[in-house]
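Example 316.
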Amino acid sequence: MQTAPPAPLVMSRVAFLGLGAIGSPMARHLATAPSALVVWNRTAQRAEAFAAAHGVTAARSPADAVRGATVVITCLPTSKEVEALLGGPGGILEGIGAGTVFVDCTSGDPETSARIATRLGAVGVSFLDAPVSGGTSGAEAGTLTVMVGGDAGVLDQVRPVLQRFGQKIVHCGPVGAGHALKAVNNAMLATHIWATAEGLAVAAKAGVDPAVALEVINASSGRSNASMNLFPERVLSRAFPRTFRLALLDKDVGIAADVARAARVPAPLLQLTAELFRLAHDALGDAADHVEAVKVVEQWAHQELAPSAADRWRGA
Ligand code: NDP
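Predicted structure in complex with NDP:
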């Protein structure tokens, strides 16, 4: 006899761990009914401020946060930090109960995810890797893309929870598939940023104003999200808002390069992009935004990618 699949968890007690630049706006969508939210953050003041602002509970430890939760969501810099939160006094494994679904929204790595899934599986907890795309603005708007690795039936159970912050939720394959795809996506983002910067620098040296070059590229075949959105809004404007740290993009491209090597896929462009973003991260530091990598290309070319004074005067 076939057993019915578990019902979706519409009413759920959610523990959210990691209230960083993207975790915080994601968690905000879960702060109201039908979920009851408990938050935990390494820097406790952040969790306390979030709890006070949204009328939810701030837990003192990961164990306290996950005790009694039906769904646990983590959003930390790398899988290393997620794995480190599992064990030890006050760790996740001390509080988590069998039957809980653990959703890791970190942009992590497939190898560590497999280890985490095994450790959680041993205590009856299902693991999904569920990294997100869409940036902090997508998190604010609740329109993130969520790419999920793990059991498709478990995903169906927690889909109503993920839909609170995600618009497109896609099952990608077994545990680690979401993390692998996210790393590949971000490696492509990095490639587009770097290629657009080099292209605009070369065009500028040939006498084409960067604003004019972008206008043409964005109506031609060289366009990308980088050329259509990031460069006009962040580079030409010289605004460079800090929404997604270069350190994190460096980590993502590194994961994609590692996955390529492990799979023995020759991927010279990807490996070079990993090297360039490591170099940019070293040069610009941990606080820099990912789009600031463009500044390295500008330095090398002795060419700022800003509209010329004449174009600024015309309001271009
Ligand atoms: P941030 O650097 O803004 O925040 C990191 C979070 O992790 C903070 O809550 C921080 O706590 C916590 N943290 C850091 N180290 C530890 C540790 N050792 N133990 C426990 N907690 C720790 O990162 P983001 O929010 O930007 O990114 C989170 C994840 O989401 C990353 O994997 C990133 O690649 C991914 N992502 C980010 C996007 C973005 O636009 N920002 C877009 C898509 C994915 P504390 O407050 O104490 O520092």
